[in-house]
Records
---
Amino acid sequence: MFGSGDTGRPRRKTDNVRRRKLLLSYAPDWVVTIALAAAFFALDKVTGFKREFSVTDTSLRHPYAVHERVPNLALYMIAIVAPIVLQWVANVFTIRSWWDAHNSTLGVILGLSLTGAITQFAKITVGRPRPDLISRCNPVEGTVDPTFGLSSAAICNQSSTYILEDGFRSFPSGHASLSFAGLGFLSFYLAGKMHLFDRRGHAAKAWIALTPLAGASLVAISRTMDYRHHWQDVLTGSILGLVTTYFAYRQYYPSLASEHSHRPYSPRIKRDEATLPMHRPTPSADVMYSGASGHGASQYHDGSEEEVELVDGTVRRGGPGPLEDVWKDGDERRKSPHDGAI
């Protein structure tokens, strides 16, 4: 007992050192993510371009909704907090890996930050009027357009600078882009964990993976109900959020069609073979197990024996185990003749 305790301390110390190196290797990702998030909030304070409009344009004469169906606070809870929490819960019930928790959190925040920065930049440069612009503008009764031209923001009597500025930020929809970025990442994450594209056609898995996208669609549709956006703004924002978050997802996870879609990519730092313990080539207490991913029978263990190397297609139920386990999938992928491009 005393011997096992003594050997455990050096191993824990080695794991801690390598864990710090591992996290530092992803510092640039976090710096870029934080910078994009800062740009998102900073651009909101910039005075944007205001496109000319016609006071007779009926598409701009909808009422200004003081109370939105999905206010900003609710949007942040739906697009940021909910995906992160649900990904952690899914992690606990699948591979129980702190590395997967890190990658999923970084990925969703990167997707949101990139989407938000692009959305805000487009808003202040395009300057498209919202459907409720005339109500926001509050022009003098009887105001008409110039004989040979359109009206500008100069005719507005709105006392609130923020309300008037926001009236020219219709394209694209920020609620749509952010909701599809956050919930879209969650949808990809769940699809990967369940091996949605394993060619076995499980309808239940498809419904679970698509549920977050249904929630994002409801948020996007609510923007037309509040007359905050035209349908083109909502459609463009939704596509932008989904495409951008898939880009972020693929930075840390393989293709959804990969047999390893339930696991994140291997760490970036070099594996130090000299500091890793030896692994027995054949586990002593393996059983044949057909994994939840549907890849046939493969050797599986419950994680109680930490020096046993996991085999392709299995999901750790115990853990989290030692740090070196996160390298194993990368090593096995490089050795496997059936990898293909991911």
---
Amino acid sequence: MKHNKPVSVTTSPASRSKKTVSHLTEAESNLLLARIAGQLGISDARSLPYMAAFSGNK
């Protein structure tokens, strides 16, 4: 079974290692959520159970 290497959402390993979730840009957050949704077989990341926490909606 072949495992794909994770794809970085940042431009360099140095910046990736220093970033925390609270410092991700909106575009990076959306990309991560879309990838998580895809792995779960969900076509739209807005359907994720915890999406409101990431988007700031209550």
---
Amino acid sequence: MKKAILSFIRRGLGTNNINDKLFKIESQIQENLKLTNKIANPSLDSPQINTGKYISDGIRLAIMAADDQSFFKCNLNGQIAWLPGATLRTMVHCVHNGNDQIDVFVETAHINWMMQHLGSQNGKSLFVDVGSSTGAASIPIALKFTKDVSIIAFEPATNAYRLFSETIKRNNIGSVTLTKSAVSDFVGKVDFVEFGEDPTGNTPYLPEASTISFSGVSEENINRTNVDCVTLDEFLISGKNIVKNSFSVVVVKIDVEGFEEHVLKGSVNFIDQIRPYFSIDIHKRIGADGTTEGECRNFLSNFGYSFEKIGHVLLATPPKSMS
């Protein structure tokens, strides 16, 4: 099993010259195998151990031990991509062992919903990724549709922006325009709180919770910065980055940690003119009880949208005559 794990790691890193990096990983794998032997029935007639699980555990150990220059070959939501180890650490709970690469399935249901609409009509489509993080949605969409879908992504967090930029370059993707800005209902500057990696590994997704600052936000393991803030109206409509009828379909993903309604309020002209599809990650309301689902539904209902829900994600479809 150890050979299988190490072979898999080498394929993932894309090189055989990594012995200096593997010493720590091998030690961790040995500890994992000791645990396997401890819990297994010592009888030769005992049932087979689920080796796939322990290979997956070994892959996760490799990811956690990888340096910032390491890239892994992955099946990211159905598309083959090279991803930085630091990106995979934020989604290590979604990592599994595949045939020739690491399988990473991140919120696939609503990403498939977005892909379905982006590819539903002839002509060029547009995907707007608000709060793109390291590109879990944008990267597979870019690889699947290549030149048929243009992508405009917004990510204000310094580290996530860097990792996304490196991923775009490593995978030779030319369809993504990445902007280091927050998106809200005003244009200007805003205080932004970026969370670092959790050294305990208990909350690997912590960096993805980076957010516009608000009263009561945690002060532990953070980096505060002042970032540009735009509205979709200002960036897309006034900035003429999109005009009516220039795209057959427009899909917008919003994942902004409780500021969902603010993004929508800054998108009135964009929504009125374009009527895009929306995939909105629902979060707890900032400084209040409940979630942001109700306010998002109420806002978009004014434009005639219909809704469905997949887990914590609200999917909004424009009226048929306008979509």
---
Amino acid sequence: MGPDPEPSAEKAHDDPPLEAVRRVDAVILQKFRSMTEGLPAIDAFPQRMAQLHRSATSPDGRFGFFEPTCHGHTPIDHGWHETWEAYFASTTRRLFQWEQAAQGPNQDILDLMEPFFSNVIPRLLRPLETDGRSITPSLIHGDLWHGNVATDADTQEPVIFDAASSYAHNEYELGVWRQPWNELGAAYRARYHEFFPPSLPVEDCDDRNALYATRVNILDSILYRDDDEYRKMLIASMRRLVEKFPGGYEEWKGKQDDLLINSGYGQGWAASSSEDMPHSWICCFKYTIKSRCPWMREGGPKTLSSLETTWRIHN
């Protein structure tokens, strides 16, 4: 898709002439729905989106899409990627190229791009798919602002349209819900997470949302090239993340490893089981602290035999 150099049926809404229909490769016919304006019900809409994200998943477990899709007039060539980090970095780098072409070169953005890609993206996305954690690629709408959603006047069910879909991390859908101009805001995000809890690490959820919102800022800066406010928002959001995560993934990983030795939980287990070998309880604790096992909160194993059994089961 993209900018149409010739007339198309999509542009000729009122009785399109036959010639216009002949010029397009395909025509979509669908049921007419009478829709009411305004935001969909906060009790129904987030739940429906969570149901979509849980039920419609990538057919082969990869992130991407079969064909390029468009955000406004900006084509996104998704391709297929084994990890969410790889997909996000690859497609976002291409969007930056589009943004610089649309708005003209900007040195602030160019200076921020290196730490953004080398520090911020790995720091916030790599923990989703390492140390036993994983996410399932979900089918997302991709541009879910309040102008792309309505309510069916007959069924009172939410209706979404004008999608820019791909198989992505489900939380990416909520990036546009962070934008100050979007009437689908924080209350809808909070309600959504009641039906689809944040991915692990949970403590990164808000910063991941800020990262996803930054990508939305790139797309808006491309689309509204005559309004520099969107570029200003982009630079501000990039700078905030770059300044917050100067050490990237490696610094975070080092801190997580330090927790394995210095945690009070581990010391408590050793004190309650004086005959345990230190190597055994440290190895077992190393796994549980990373995967947030429920039995860790229940006090953990108390004997050497239970520690060894747990290590064999959970390792």
